[in-house]
Every structure is written in structure tokens, then in C-alpha cells.
Amino acid sequence: MSTKSAMSSPSDLLPNQFGGLKLKREMPAWMISVLMHAAVLVVLALITHATGLNEQINILTVVEDLEEPEFIANTSVLDQIGTDGNSLQITEAQQSATEMGQEQHEQAEQELEDELLAADIPVTNMIVEPNEADLQEEVDTTGTTENVGGVEGAIDRLTLEIAASLREGKTLVCWVFDVSPSLSKRREVIADRFENVYKQLGLLEVQADKSLKTAVAAFGAQTTFVTPDPVDDVKDVVSAIRKISPDTSGDENVFSAVSAVAKKWSNYRTKQNRKMMIIVVTDEAGSDQGAMEEAINYTKRYGIRCYVVGNAAPFGRRVVRTEWELDNGDIVMAEMDQGPESIFPERLQLPFWASNGSDLEKMSSAFGPYALTRLCAETNGLYFVSADTPGPRFDHEVMRGYQPDYLPVKTFDQRVRKDPTKSALLNASLLTWSDDVPNPQLGFEAPNDTELRQQITNAQMPIARLEARLMELSNVLEMGEKTRPQVRESRWRAGYDLAMGRVLAMKVRAAGYNAMLAEMKSTPKSFENPDSNFWQLNPSQEITSGMSVGKLAKRATAYLTRVIDEHPGTPWARLAELELSQPLGWEWEERKVMTAAEREEERKNNPRFEEEERERMERARKLAKPPIKI
User: Using 50, 70 and 90 to split pLDDT, how confident is the model at 186?
Assistant: First the structure.
């Protein structure tokens, strides 16, 4: 046999997909033909089966798209909208995409209705009430407060929320107005803006025939239904808002009003299957916060979203006091319940001894009050800050990292009890809110040593009580110092460090103050200027109260400096800066002040003096009266 006939050529040995060899010369032609036809039949069968699977999958996908749970609310908001109050335009691409998606959805829905038998089920059965556990479930509260640039900006943003609801279905919007005299201007602004709202909804092409109904209610001590039934015409709404009369009772039962509105018009939700929104317009936190849980549970149960157009809460405070002009022109002191932004005040109510911190009493928290903001959070609504406090304000983007806890009170209490640092801060804070911390007397008239000593004796008595209170606060805060490094939330870290720093600083000042008064009382100083008749205590870098007090001063400075370094641009840093702006020690300064005889002489020589003095005293008398509630 020749070498050529004994060996196979490379083309005779073909590797198959399983790694074996196919021997062409050993397989008859008829068998190759049979195998090839069999392979073709198998491939065709697989293609047919795959097509059938795709058809089944496509049908299942359509059905799933149509199964919309009634109460999975659309929580998306147009965060790119600005805050200048005229930001209602959407791009053509966005509008086109929205319309195309809607058309595809409607087409698929119609095809399914043609193929399936429609079941005659009452609409009321579509409202499924969640169980009690669902109502108590915690919610994601990110974005519950929006700063939108005034009332106009809030109304423009609400227009987008209404438009989003109308795209999901017919909608009832219930406007609930606070009737306090302080809200008169805001109600007028909203009434002026209303026609623009409905005009913009028309431009957004979401107002089908009677798809939007509007109702108006008002609340003070009682809830009044301004529109007996929801209306279609915007002119009726504007007229209803302008007819609201102010109420001077001082009560703002906002949560009772929310519950009353939800119950009165809930049939539009259950029987007509309309989306339902409640929009509260107020500038206070509400007088009936005990009714908060009922309002939350009812609105959650029926899928009613709640929004609030309100004020920023003052930082760490419940009440804001301000001068208020009555109808007769008199100026009186008034107070408004506008806070706090957290469940309990997390800020110690301590005075600033050597500097004027009065403007910080109205400092903004950049958030809405806790109860109303939680109502919005639990119902997937939003709290719109339409007006800020008259005091210092802070960048809202910076403050996003310091959001309060919007938990139920019971849940919050359980969590805080497990954290010694948080418990220490809240307990110390509540101690300062239950009893005022006195401000020391820093100026002393000294016509002679006897009168000077008597004034010093009177000034020492409240400071003795103060030192006892500061020791109590210090002991409470010390309980949380060991676990302070384990606290992760910026808000709690800043709050604890500021509280500890301020209490320690005040202890240093109190010790130095007592030492300076005791020395002056024992050995009164002599004036260098013969015209001087008054001693004034001023801050000084020198601390003369001993080494232990010096160590306290270093600790206080370390805590306050850490607040400034770690939390710049926040209310905590602002308070720490003010505390450190004045040294912790004391020194005496002699002065010349007007005596009683000199005041009498000035009264004789200046015709306006007596009148100005009388006006000043009358104003002080009015402002000293108990504040009115507005």
C-alpha cells in the first residue's frame, strides 16, 4: 500500500462541536442525507417553540403593566424646577414622551378589555384599607421639606403636583386655609395666583372635562367648609378664598381640619375613584397636635396626599415672639407657635451673658415644624417653606444633612432611650425649657460703698440658683459623653457638642462672676475718674477663678471649636461662634451714667425729653404685657 492511500488528508478528518471526528469516507451518502434532513426539522421545531414562548411572555407583560395597585403613589417630583415662582414649563421631549407612553398604555388597555369579560365590581371595593401595621410603618422622608422661594414658588410647584395627579386620573384638590390674621396677606396672594394655576394646567394639557374639582375649607378653633361641595370653575374658588374672615381666637386646629376635610369628601375618593390632595396653608405648627395621629392614619388609609404651604420652624424653639400692630394701631407683643422642627427641642435654652443673642431666638431651622412635616412625609406629600423666620437663615443644601427624625413619638422615644448621648441631650434640653435660666446683672450703680454692696448682694442670690442648675445640666450631659463618638448622625453630634460646650462655658463664667462680686463686696474698688459712678462687668481673657475653672474653660473651648469646625454654615456653628466671641473671664470697667438729679435737670431743659420718656415707658408697658396669640 502506498503512503498516499494509507493516510487520510486533513479535509477527511473534520472536528465536530463535541470534540470528536467525522469520517467522511466511512459514512454512506444516504445516511448523510437523512441526518441533514433530521437536523433541519429539529431547528424548525425549536424556532416554532421559541415564538410561542415569546407570545406568552408578551401577553403576561401587558397584563402586569395594567395591574396598578391603587395606593402606590407616584412620588416622583420635578426636582429640576427652579424656585423663582415661574417655573412651570416642560420640554417638548418630556411632553412627547409622556403622551407616547400614555397612548401605548391606553391601547394595551383597550385590547385587553376587548378580550376579557368585564367584571361588574363596585368601585368602592377598589379601596383596600391597610392593616394597622402598615399604618405604623416607617416611611422614607427624604425630600419632605422643599424651599421654593416664597408663596408664589410654592403655588407653582403645587401646580406640577396637581398636574402629575391629573395624569394618573381625575383629582379632587382640597385647599384648607388658616384663618389667623397673620395669614390674610398670604391668602390674598394665593387668590391672585389661582387663575394662573389653572391656566398653567391647561398649558400642560392635563385638564380634561371636569377632571379637576376643587374644594375650599378654613380652620381656626373650628373647621368651616367654604365650598359646600367641590366646584369646577376657578372663579368660584377665588371668590370663596376672598370671603374667608380672619379669626382672632388664637387657635389653629389644623389636624382636626385635615381629618374633617378628608372625611367630608372621602366619597369622591371611594365612590368616584378620584385622586385626592389636601393642601394646607398656614404659618404655625398647629394647636391640636394631639390629633396628628388620627389625621395621618385616616389620610394614609384612603391614599390622600397632604401638602403644606407654611413657615420654616425656628431652630430648637416652639414659640416665636414678635411685635404686632393691632387694628387700632397699637403695638403689642404677640407669639406664634411655629416649631420646633424636631419632636422635642434639641437645643438648650440658655442666655448669652456677655453678648446680645436676641436675634438668634428667631433663627431658622430650614425645616417645617415636626408635626406638619411628618403629616406630609407619611402621606407622600411635601412641606413647602414659603416664608422663613426673621432671624438668621442657612443654606438649605447644607441643612439637608441635618434633617430631624420624623418618627412616631413612641418609636422615637424607644430609640432615644437606647442611646445615652441622645437621651442626655434631650433630658438636659427639657430641664432648661421647664425653668428659665437667669441672666446675671452686669452693671452696678455705686454712689457709695453701702449701696454698691447691697446691689451685689441682690445680684448674688439668683446666681446661687444658677450654679446649682448648671451643675445639674452638666451631670446629665456627662452621662452621654462616653458614647458620644458612636453617634453617627451629624444633627445629634452637633447638638450634643454645642450643649456640652455652652454648659461648661456658662459654669466658667458663673464661677468667675461670683469671684468678682465677692471681691468687690469685700473690698470695693475706688474710681480713678472722679466723675465715674457706675461699675460694669465686661468679658476678659483672664480667668482668675482657679486652676479647676481654667480646665473647664479649655474643655468648653474644645467642644465649641469642634462644632464650628465640623458643622460650618449651620445653626449649631452660629451659636458656638457667638459663645466663643466673648472671652470667658471678667474685668471691671468704671463708667459715668446719668443720675436721678441729672435726669430731672434734662427734663426741665429739654421740652421733648418728658414726652419721649413717656412714649418710651408706654411702649415698654405694652410690650411687657402677656403676649397675645395670633
Answer: confident
Using alpha carbons only, how large is the chain's radius of gyration in Å?
37
User: Tens digits of per-residue pLDDT, 403-420?
Assistant: 999 999 999 999 999 999
Taking the C-alpha atoms of residue 41 and residue 34, their distance in angstroms, rounded to an integer, is: 11
Is 446 found in the same domain as 559?
yes
Position 347: which residue type?
A: R
Task: Write out the E strands in 498-544.
Answer: 534-540
Pair 378, 424 in one domain: no
Band (pLDDT 50/70/90 cuts) for residue 147 is confident
Number of structural domains (the chain) is 2
At residue 358, the pLDDT reads 65
Instruction: Give the three cell numbers for residue 514.
Output: 461670683
> Do the beta carbons of residue 231 and residue 241 sit within 8 Å?
no
Of all helices (H) and strands (E), which one includes residue 234? helix 234-242
Long-range contacts of 227-234 (CB under 8 A, 24+ apart): 230/172, 230/174, 230/265, 230/268, 234/194, 234/195, 234/197, 234/198
Same domain, 492 and 549: yes
3-state secondary structure of 171: strand
Three-state secondary-structure class, residue 437: coil
Q: Is the pLDDT of residue 227 over 80?
A: yes
Instruction: Of 139, 162, 115, give the one whose Cα is nearest residue 277.
Output: 162
- The C-alpha cell at 40 is 433541519
- Are residue 375 and residue 457 in the same domain, yes or no? no
Give the model confidence (pLDDT) of 478-501 as tens digits. 999 999 999 999 999 999 999 999
Q: Are residues 569 and 460 in the same domain?
A: yes
Q: Are residues 262 and 207 in the same domain?
A: yes
Same domain, 473 and 331: no
End-to-end CA distance of the chain: 120
The reported pLDDT for the residue numbered 40 is 53
Residue 479 domain boundaries: 418-593
128 in a domain, yes or no? no
Q: Is the pTM of this model over 0.85?
A: no
Rounded to 5 degrees, φ, ψ at 569 are 75, 20
**Rounded alpha-carbon distances, angstroms, from residue 600 to 278, 586, 595, 610, 621:** 63, 34, 9, 9, 21
**Same domain assignment for residues 391 and 426:** no
Mean pLDDT of 586-598: 86
Grid cell 465649641 is found at: 560
The C-alpha atoms of residue 512 and residue 584 are separated, in whole angstroms, by: 8
Q: What are residue 550's phi and psi, to 5 degrees? A: -60, -40
Per-residue buried b or exposed e for 349-363, using 16+ beta carbons within 10 Å of the residue's own CB: bbebbbeebeebbbb
Count CA atoms within 13 Å of residue 480 on its CB side.
27
pLDDT range class, residue 573, cuts 50, 70, 90 = very high
Q: Mean pLDDT over residues 54-63, rounded?
A: 34
